[in-house]
User: What shape does this take?
Amino acid sequence: MAIIFNEKTKTFHLYNEDISYLMTILPNGHLGNLYFGGRIHHKEDFSYLLELSCRPMTSYVSDNDQRFSLEHVRLEYGVYGTTDFRHPAVEILQKNGSRISDFVYRGYGITDGKPKLDGLPATYTEDPAEAQTLTISLEDKVTGIVLELLYTIFARGGIITRSARLVNHGKESVQLTRALSLCLDLPDRDHVWIQFSGAWARERHLKTRKLEQGIQAVDSIRGHSSHDHNPFIVLKRPNADENQGEVLGFSLVYSGNFLAQAQVDTHDTTRVLLGIHPFGFSWKLDPGDRFQTPEAVVVWSRKGLGGMSRTFHGLYQKRLARGYWRDRERPILINNWEATYFDLTEEKLLAIAGRAKECGVELFVLDDGWFGARSNDRAGLGDWTPNLERLPDGITGLADKIEALGLRFGLWFEPEMVNKDSDLYRAHPDWILQTPDRHSSQGRFQYVLDFSRREVVDCIYGMMHKILRSAKISYIKWDMNRSITECYSSALPADRQGEVFHRYILGVYDLYERLTAAFPHILFESCASGGGRFDPGLLYYAPQGWASDDSDAVERLKIQYGTSFCYPVSSIGSHVSMTPNHQVFRKTPLHTRANVAYFGTFGYELDLNRLTDEEQKIVKEQILFMKKYRRLIQSGRFYRLRSPFEGNVTAWMCVSEDKREAVLGWYRVLNGVNLPYSRLYLDGLDEELPYHIWVDGKARDGVYHGDELMRAGLVTSDSACGEVSPDERPGCDFDSKIYVLRAEGQP
Ligand code: DGJ
Assistant: This one.
């Protein structure tokens, strides 16, 4: 890995074994991009990559040069209105009403490692040798604003992280009305755009389209990253697939309003923009102030979508997630939400916990409804004191009882919200986000606390701290169940109202930071009505997130498959729930519910007392299986084999670091009759190693080499293909199998 600056040609070259990133200082002092992609040899001069041309309808920067227009070069942080007409990365409203800026190169610095970003989550290094950071400073002379562009290249993998910092060294205040994290201009439009979109209970479904001239974008202006879109997009070459071909992944380490956009201009250059959504955003920068954008992470891979995903997984698992739980196997939990909803008593909870313990569960999580007057969703939010009618010995007593059963205890909070029917709201009606003289809309009968205010965050911290200190609590589920409307803070002046959305998220991060620092052993799981804030920002504080409120095994195939493009298996909260399922009312077999949930953090979302003895026996076996394989599943390499978006069969597998062991999930939504013979071409194995195979725990005859399984394939034909095998049970709708592969010994 190296970062080289060539004084003569004014070229920066960041490279490691996988990638090269080349920039140059343009004739007007702006920073231009020359290349980003697979590693190329270093040389002094790459100026031929700057294509300067004279074309009709072009405006030129200087009187003497009929070729240099910002419109026709690739810019590192585009500005609008000084010959470039693409959407810009930055816009600054000045006192005289002008929005023009002109950021001219001033200098650069290179440091080992990676600096922290003020108040924001970001990837990090543990050893300075893991990465190098280049900071390039540019100045707009008229306003005195200095723009610092930060680039980190990691020693290993095709990873570049970027962010921008704007510092006001001038004499007058300005309003930033746009400050994105990344602007990357690519030389052509020969890409397929992939986004991960959906809705509540249908999160992160994969959608693709060919890039065309014009703008394609996904975004959120809901105050959270949202169920609708994820702050993650992919541009892949049309010939790239799971295993090969050039792919670029763009991910934003942020949990609030975002924009991810690709603009293909008239000459087929593609500009990618990623960062805080400019809609509704402004930030007043007084003299001396600075503004730091969130971090954007770009992964380049020549090993297709799978290669890109595994690079994200490694980075986000080891250098974004932090703390005690980062590298630990996740506890198998039981959550009472779908078992009781609000209808809970201590007796019921202990009955659920007791049975769960007998089956091998490790952690009991008490969900919504334990506090204040919270017997339904109209009251109690904000009053984080135990409801002693429901829990006579409080949380302290219940936690002790759960611990006495031999389980750990976890608790649900929704720290950012308040019901009007609560003591907190009655004491502080001005603490919610609300616009003066306007109606306030409710969502699930709740209102959003103004987390842009320090005293509000302090108060919630105080209440949570007290509970956490008072009881043996090992886990927190942090929920967030509505989007922000009528966004306005009574604590900020008129010219700072555009800051509220971002300040709100900074408040959320601040509370997370303080709680995780005060209680480093607590495992945090993020949640926002399921997957409404499943983003890298929260992964920094909470190493796992409840991926979706949809716990149906078939629906989960798409949700977990889509999620896996950016996020590691260890971050995907996944549970076995009751049948018929509570969201889609589908009846799926118990084995399939577990076979899907294994590829995540794994747990149960039901009352095991309601299962038959035979089913409870199966649950015990499932838990034993997960205990045995969770390290491999949660920290192995993940390979997608068959997409639920393309057919009736889904398959994926996790392979251990040393390639000696693998666990594979195979799922068929509808059973068929007289189907074609079927095979899966496996991935990630060692070509040379002979593997033994177990199907649903039963040994299959023979030994199979890695090359054989990857090229000739694993035969998955079964009774639906006419195959009569005494070992295998007959197939059914919503069927699935787990294959275990081991290079030696017994599973
Ligand atoms: C939404 C979450 O996603 C559910 O799992 C549950 O915690 C409810 N909120 C509780 O209100």
Q: What stands out?
A: Residues 337, 367-368, 412, 479, 481, 527, 529-530, 546, 549 surround DGJ (CB under 6 Å). The two ends are 40 Å apart (CA to CA).
